[in-house]
């Protein structure tokens, strides 16, 4: 009897302890959600170099995986953090070429204010004399697309064309830079070539999104013109294109851009609803 | 006579080898290494088509880190265990010198750590091959340099274990490894400071084990190999340093009162 009582007490005691343990963990979870954590990447590259036992390329690889996670989860970190992480990757492992190219192509798309930082990273990559044609190609494209800087765009397109191992299609696009009739046509050529040559899904998808965005804009502009031809005036609202039966729906933009019209045949853009 | 010396060393080495490969720490660390190196396949797959770079850089780093851990954990307790268990009395009652015991211990542990690194290398080569990198010949060269460094670290751990308990020995060994990999940077850093500090660090640079020369991982990752002269000098440096440490350890053991 005494033994059974002891056993019950012991069971209750351990159950109580487990309940307390779960409650503590639960409380910790809510606390942990609010406490800041210091990511490894916040440490400057020189500090990482001193502390990594010479495993520079391995630490750079881990930082690169961190960048990839932040980019794939998009806005999991600020673009400034992504930029500084890639900076650290390239300082720890200067011969690791793809981060230079990736930075200059992707970062300005996330945040225009980081364009110069991205250009600085890629310029260092070109100065390292790496034989990765993507660095000068994406750098030249960024000068063309985001900064409208033809002189630098031409400079890096020439470097691309002279880089050993550049694919024939890219070489042709680089050498023909400036021969397109419109900036629009040139932009499409670039995104198409980036899409066709990309070996990773994130860059390929980004190029595809840009091509889709261009298709949508072109389609809406054509629809506005058709509306005018049928009704004699441009629609007052973008929704009129649907009510008039010209479009079945307003296409969804891959970047979440909302389209409107000013009533004079021009499209206006805004982010979100 | 010479043959007898070698036979005695070989007997100690054989027993040390058997003892260390029976150690649970050895298997636990090897299992972790197996998981870590295999896991690089997954890490490579989420690296935006940089699979091979990730697999090679993290794989070579993993082999190095686990090799060092096995060395430090087994090496630092090697002599201490013999002293604590008083089995060293028994060994030394035989016609064998302190130096021969130390040399045998070194060779035995070196063989077992080299065996574990060979095991990790097989896994690494398989993972690189699976990731499309073919047979990584240059990776093998980097691993060879890692084995040379590990040899020096074994001598260092044995040296510490002749006069210190395992835990402080682990701390000393890790500190020397850390400093050994930072000496070059420390010299550069003190160039901007006082001349005295620079001279002191410069002195340490030549006296302490300078481990950066064993790190050719970043070099081979981009298809480069060190020159034959560099390979020769690295082997020579490690051999001389190892002999100094083992001789020092033997001397300390001889002077120790049991």
Structural notes for this entry:
- The complex is a heterodimer of chains A (273) and B (258).
- The mean pLDDT of chain A is 88.
- In chain A, helix 4 (79-92) runs antiparallel to helix 5.
- Chain A is mainly α and 273 residues long.
- Chain A has helices at 2-34, 45-51, 56-72, 79-92, 98-110, 115-127, 134-145, 150-162, 168-175, 183-197, 201-231, 240-243, and strands at 257-261, 267-271.
- Chain A is flat, with a radius of gyration of 27 Å.
- The longest helix of chain B is centred in the first third of the chain and has 34 residues, at 51-84.
- Chain B is globular and about 60 Å long.
- The A-B interface holds A 49-50, 53-58, 60-62, 64-65, 68-69, 72, 93, 95-96, 98, 102, 199-203 and B 43, 46-50, 53-54, 57-58, 60-61, 64-65, 177-178, 181-182, 185, 211-212, 215, 217-218, 221-222.
Category by helix and strand content of chain B: mainly alpha
The N- and C-terminal alpha carbons of chain B lie at a distance of: 29 Å
Structural class assignment of chain A? mainly alpha
Number of helices, where a helix is a run of at least 4 consecutive DSSP H or I residues of chain B: 10
Anisotropy-based shape of chain B: globular
Question: What is the mean predicted local confidence, pLDDT of chain A?
Answer: 88
Q: In what order do the strands lie side by side in the largest sheet of chain A?
A: 1-2
User: Which term fits the overall shape of chain A?
Assistant: flat
User: Largest sheet of chain B at a glance?
Assistant: none
* Oligomer state of the chains in this structure: heterodimer
The low-confidence parts of chain A are: none
- How far from one another are the termini of chain A? 72 Å
Q: Name the beta content range of chain A.
A: under 5%
Rg of chain A over CA atoms, rounded to whole Å, is: 27 Å
Number of strands of chain A: 2
Helix coverage percent of residues of chain A?
Answer: 55-70%
Number of helix segments of chain A?
Answer: 12
């Amino acid at each position: 009897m005494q033994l059974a009582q002891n056993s019950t007490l012991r069971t209750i005691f351990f159950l109580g302890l487990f309940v307390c343990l779960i409650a503590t963990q639960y409380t910790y979870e809510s606390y942990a959600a609010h406490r800041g954590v210091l990511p490894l990447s916040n440490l400057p590259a020189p500090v990482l170099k001193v502390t990594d036992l010479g495993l520079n390329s391995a630490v750079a690889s881990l930082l690169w995986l961190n960048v990839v996670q932040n980019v794939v989860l998009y806005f999991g970190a600020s673009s400034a953090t992504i930029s500084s992480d890639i900076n650290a990757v390239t300082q720890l492992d200067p011969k690791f070429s793809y981060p230079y190219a990736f930075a200059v192509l992707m970062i300005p798309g996330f945040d225009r204010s980081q364009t110069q930082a991205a250009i600085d990273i890629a310029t260092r990559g070109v100065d390292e004399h790496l034989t990765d044609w993507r660095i000068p190609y994406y750098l030249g494209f960024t000068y063309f697309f985001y900064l409208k800087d033809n002189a630098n765009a031409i400079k890096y397109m020439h470097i691309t064309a002279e880089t050993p191992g550049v694919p024939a299609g890219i070489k042709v696009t680089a050498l023909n830079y400036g021969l397109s009739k419109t900036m629009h046509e040139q932009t499409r050529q670039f995104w198409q070539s980036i899409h066709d040559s990309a070996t990773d899904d994130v860059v390929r998808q980004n190029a595809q999104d840009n091509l889709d965005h261009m298709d949508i804009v072109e389609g809406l502009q054509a629809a506005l013109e058709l509306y005018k031809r049928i009704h004699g005036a441009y629609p007052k609202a973008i929704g009129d294109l649907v009510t008039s039966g010209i479009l079945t729906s307003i296409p969804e933009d891959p970047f979440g851009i909302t389209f409107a019209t000013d009533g004079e045949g021009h499209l206006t853009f805004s982010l979100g609803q | 006579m010479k043959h007898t010396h070698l036979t005695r060393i070989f007997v100690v080495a054989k027993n040390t080898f058997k003892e260390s490969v029976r150690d649970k720490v050895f298997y636990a660390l090897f299992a972790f290494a197996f998981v870590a190196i295999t896991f690089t396949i997954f890490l490579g797959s989420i690296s935006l088509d940089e699979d091979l770079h990730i697999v090679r850089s993290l794989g070579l780093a993993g082999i190095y880190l686990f090799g060092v851990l096995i060395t430090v954990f087994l090496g630092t307790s090697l002599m201490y265990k013999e002293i604590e268990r008083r089995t060293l009395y028994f060994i030394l009652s035989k016609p064998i010198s302190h130096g021969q015991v130390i040399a045998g211990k070194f060779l035995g542990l070196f063989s077992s750590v080299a065996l574990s690194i060979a095991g990790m290398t097989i896994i690494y080569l398989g993972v690189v091959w699976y990731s499309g990198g073919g047979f990584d010949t240059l990776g093998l060269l980097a691993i060879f340099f890692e084995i040379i460094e590990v040899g020096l670290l074994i001598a260092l751990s044995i040296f510490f274990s002749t006069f210190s308990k395992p835990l402080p020995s682990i701390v000393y060994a890790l500190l020397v490894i850390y400093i050994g990999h930072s000496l070059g940077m420390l010299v550069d850093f003190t160039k901007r400071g006082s001349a005295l500090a620079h001279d002191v660090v410069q002195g340490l640079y030549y006296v302490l084990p300078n481990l950066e020369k064993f790190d050719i991982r970043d070099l081979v990752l981009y298809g480069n190999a060190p020159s034959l002269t560099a390979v020769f000098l690295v082997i020579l440096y490690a051999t001389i340093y190892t002999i100094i440490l083992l001789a020092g350890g033997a001397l300390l053991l001889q002077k120790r009162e049991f």
